[in-house]
Amino acid sequence: MGKAGLGELELTIMNFIWKRSGPVTVPDVHEHLVKSRQLAYTSTMTVMGRLNDKGLLTRSEDRRPYKYWAAMSREDYSAELMLGVLSEFGNRKAALARFVDRIGRKDAALLAELAAKAGKQRK
Known about the structure:
By secondary structure, the chain is mostly helical. The protein has 6 helices and 2 strands, in the order H-H-H-E-E-H-H-H. It has helices spanning about 10-20, 25-35, 40-55, 75-90, 90-100, 105-120, and strands at about 55-60, 70.
């Protein structure tokens, strides 16, 4: 998966798929999308193919229609995105310090709790 985030349509498609409990087809996704926007079926098919190429979707080998499902959870995608951003800049400590400065107290406390828990699990 690349370091860049998802475009608006890609994110809309992924959110729909993450909410589903099983595989979806292009017609399933397209039917959902056209309720709120004008969009060609081929556009839906193209974007889902790109999401598959990016490693965010897995596609069945069966043809017509392909079945797609999320290759990773929303939480795993978020973590990968954050790690990608951190790896792009030289001073991780400064970037993390700014991040902690900007999040609210509750999130900062949660982050400290999770960091302590992770530290114990790694020992």
